[in-house]
Amino acid sequence: MEIRFLNSQDVIVYRDLRLQALIESPTAFASSYEQESCFPLTDFAARLRPHNDSANAIFGAFSNKDRLIGMLGFSRESRLKRIHIGSLWSMYVLPENRQQGVAATLLDEALSHARHLTGLRQIVLTVTTNNLPAASLYRSRGFERFGLECDALFINGIYFDEEHLVLHFNHDG
User: Fold this and answer.
1) Model confidence at 115, in pLDDT bands (50, 70, 90)?
2) Which of 7, 9, 45, 52 is 20 to 30 A from 17, alpha carbon to alpha carbon?
3) Which residues fall within 8 angstroms of residue 155, CB to CB, at 6 or more apart?
4) In this predicted structure, what is the pLDDT of residue 140?
5) CA 138 vs CA 18, 82, 88, 143: distances in Å
6) Are the C-beta atoms of 165 and 132 separated by less than 8 Å?
7) Strands of 57-62's sheet, edge to edge?
8) What pLDDT score was predicted for residue 53?
9) Pair 72, 110: CB distance under 8 Å
10) Class of the CATH-defined domain 2-168
């Protein structure tokens, strides 16, 4: 397995994985397949380098056969008063590749990347409370709950709560 930043050449496989994720795991994302399936390819390409900042990226996990099997987004706040905060978003691994360490490897790569960014002090993320495997993975890396948003998502007539998690770094860089 190879983990690397996705780039403009990956836009089609990224879009395909993103749309599959929205269909297969709708409670894991605030967006929906109905919305994003209508987006032009340029919208997906723009996500591959969020905010035109080299610190921000989507990590991709590729199988030994060069197939995109997982993804995890990382972005850093750009506003001066919040530049010490990073965010993780859109973690997804194909069902047939779960429980093989793909998500853990993606998370570890993103955390390693974040720890090398000067001045970054914390990383935040949200996870639906029914997503116990993801929450367990995040907690295993030191993330702690700092909030609960009740009824955060409304999908097919059902409300889902989201936990807000944070990982604090013990240094300034």
Assistant:
1) very high
2) 52
3) 26, 27, 32
4) 97
5) 21, 22, 11, 5
6) no
7) 2-5, 57-62, 68-76, 85-93, 122-128, 158-168, 144-155
8) 62
9) yes
10) alpha beta
Q: State the pairing for strand pair 57-62/85-93.
A: unpaired
Contact 77/122 with Cβ under 8 angstroms? no
Which residue reads 């960014």 in tokens?
117
Alpha carbon distance 101, 86 (integer Å) = 23
So where are the chain's domains?
Answer: 2-168
Pairwise CA distance, residues 152 & 129, whole Å: 10
Q: How far apart are the first and last CA of the chain?
A: 29
Query: Could you tell me which residues come within 8 angstroms of residue 12 by beta carbon, excluding any fewer than 6 positions away?
Result: 41
DSSP string, 117-156: STT--EEEEEEETT-HHHHHHHHHTT-EEEEEEEEEEEET
User: Measured between alpha carbons, how far is 111 from 81 in angstroms, rounded to an integer?
Assistant: 22
